[in-house]
Structures are given as C-alpha cells and as structure tokens.
Amino acid sequence: MKNxxxxxxxxxFWGVEEIFRTTDGVxxxxxxxxxxxxPDVTYDMVCYENTNHAEVVQLEFDRSKVKYEDLLxxxxxxxxxxxxxRQGPDVGSQYRSVIFxxxxxxxxxxxxxxxAIAEKWxxxxxxxxxxxxxxxxxxxxxxxxxxxxxxxSSCHI
Length: 157
Description:
The chain is built from 5 helices and 8 strands, in the order E-H-E-H-E-H-E-E-E-H-E-E-H. The chain has helices at 13-21, 43-48, 68-77, 104-120, 146-150, and strands at residues 3-10, 26-34, 54-62, 86-87, 90-91, 97-101, 129-132, 137-138. A hairpin with a 2-residue loop joins strand 4 (86-87) and strand 5. The chain is globular, with a radius of gyration of 15 Å. It starts with a strand and ends in a 7-residue tail after the last helix.
C-alpha cells in the first residue's frame, strides 16, 4: 500500500510533531506553516505578522501500519479543540486547531471524527477547521524535531 500525507495543526508544532513522530506507522514528520495568504513565510512572519498561517506538522504515514482514523484520534486526544486560536499559553491564529485534508477520503474521515469528538466535549463548540491542504512551507531547520534534539518528550508545563 502506498504512503500518504496528513497535516495537522494543534498548537505549537514542536509538541505536535513529537507526538506524531513517535506514533507507530508514521514514517516521517516535518513542521511548517500552512493555510495562510503570504508565500515563502518564515517563523518570524508567522509569529509577528498577519499571514494567517497555522503552525502544522505534515507527516508521511504507511497505511498498512496505521489508519488515517487512528491519526485523527491522536490529533483529537492531544489538544483542546474548543479553544479558538489558542492552545495552552500560546495565543494567535497560528496555534489554531486545523486539519488539512489531502483527499476526499481524509475529508470524510475528519468530518466524521469531528462529529464523534463533539459528543466528548458536550456543551462546548469544536472550533477545529477542516480545510483542503494548501501549500506547505517547511519551517526552519532548527524547528525540525526540536524536542527530540533537546532530549525532551513534550513541551507541556
């Protein structure tokens, strides 16, 4: 079976990448920026200008080892999908909850999973966007596998 791409934004990309990087069936990860309106963005631009890009992790996964639906479960259980443009202490549209789907099958699975997760967050609105994959801009090298290089398993306080 062919490998596939998946792209998720769930707050600061360092922690999101580490969670997916250590998930069985994930072959490769890269952190970057997606969903904005400015080409060739940099970290400083995303943080300090209104580019509308989200910090994301794009991963390549082996469908014979992990299903997209399993990756969605990892996504939903590792952030708060009810906080608008915020995860923990990080505030701004770059930290929004977003799924960038790469094909119709991913779109359908993401929408179904959003409906299912809403039951777990009864009474709260799920603000996660589900939108078509856009141009992915790989982040600077020093952001790639940042936590692993620092010997950290997470960046949660």
